[in-house]
Amino acid sequence: MGGYEGDQHDTWPYFQHQDNITITAQLGSTAELDCRVNRLRDKTVSWVRREGGEIKLLTWGLHTYSIDPRFSLNFEQPNNWKLQVKYTQRRDQGIYECQISTHPPQVLPVSLNIVAPVVEVVDERGAVVMEKFYKTASTIQLKCTISQMPQAQTFILWRHGDHMLNYDTSRGGISVKTDMSSSVIVSTLFIANATPADSGNYTCSLGDVATGSVIVHILNDEQRAAVQHGSGTSDLCCFSLVLMLPSLSALIALR
Predict the structure, then answer these.
(1) C-alpha 200: how far from its chain's center?
(2) Residue 152 and residue 128 share a domain
(3) pLDDT tens, position by position, 121-167
(4) Coil, helix or strand for 223?
(5) Is residue 5 part of a domain?
(6) What is the DSSP-derived secondary structure letter of residue 135?
(7) Cβ neighbours of residue 155 under 8 Å, at least 6 residues apart?
C-alpha cells in the first residue's frame, strides 16, 4: 500500500520510499533493512515477518519483541526505523514488512536475500584443483578465488593445517598477495624453499563463512619420477607405493 499524501488523509504518515525494496547481505554479516517514515506523529512503526500463513512481530516502536537476539531495532535520526539482523543465516532470507499503525495499516515490504561467497583453490587455468605437487626447494604457489561477495572484505586467511600463515614470521619465505580490483577477489599464497614439512592440507577462508582447500605434496626426485611415469590411476598407485616404501623398509627391518 502506498502513502496517503495528497488525499483526505494528507496529515497521515507515509513512507519516504514506497517501492518494493530488496536487500542483499552476505551470509554471516549484519543486514540492515531501512524504513524511512515521514510525518509519523502519534503513530507507531513496527516490523513483522511473514512465514507461510504466520506473522511474527519483530519490533514495535523502539522495542524488540523477537526472541532471536540477532534481531533489533536501530533507529537513525531523523526518520529511519531500521531493522538490524546480525550474523545472518540462510533461514533469514525472505519478506519483511515495515508497518505504520494507521487504519488500515500502511505496509512497506522489504525482501532480504542472503548470499554465500564461493571460495575455491584454482590452478593456472582457473580450474578447481584438489591436489598440487611440488619438488623440494621449489616455491609453492596457491591461488584462491572468492566470488559472490556483496560486501567487500579483505579478511582472507591462509592456513596449513591449523597453523595460520598470513602473519607467520617463524618459518620465513611466506607471503600473501591479494588482488581486489575485480568482482572476483584473488588471493595468492607463496612459500619459498619447500620442504617435506610443507606438505599437507592448505585452506583459504573468508572468516567462518566459506573455505576452499587443497592438498600439497612435496616430492623428491625419486617420487616425482614415479608420479610422472604413466597416467591416470597408475600415477596415484605409483605415488602411493613411493610413500609407503620407507614404512615397508622399517617393518622388514623389525622382522
Answers:
(1) 24
(2) yes
(3) 999 888 999 999 999 999 999 999 998 876 666 578 999 999 999 88
(4) helix
(5) no
(6) E
(7) 206, 207
Q: What would the grid cell of residue 130 be?
A: 584438489
Structural domain count of the chain: 3
Cα–Cα distance measured from residue 152 to residue 150, given in angstroms and rounded to the nearest whole number: 7
Beta strands in 180-234 (DSSP E): 185-191, 200-206, 210-219
Same domain for 127 and 108 = no
Is 70 among the domain residues? yes
3-state secondary structure of 6: coil
Tell me the H-state helices in the chain: 221-228, 233-254
Decide: helix, strand or coil at residue 57: strand
In a domain, 1, yes or no: no
Rounded Cα distance, 45 and 40, in Å: 8
Question: What phi and psi values does residue 140 have, to the nearest 5 degrees?
Answer: -75, 135
Examine the domain organization and report whether 195 and 254 are in the same domain: no
Query: Cell match 539482523: residue?
Result: 85
Give the global pTM. Answer: 0.65
Closest CA to 211 of 25, 1, 27: 27
Containing structural domain, residue 181: 118-219
Half-sphere exposure of 210 (CA within 13 A, CB side): 19
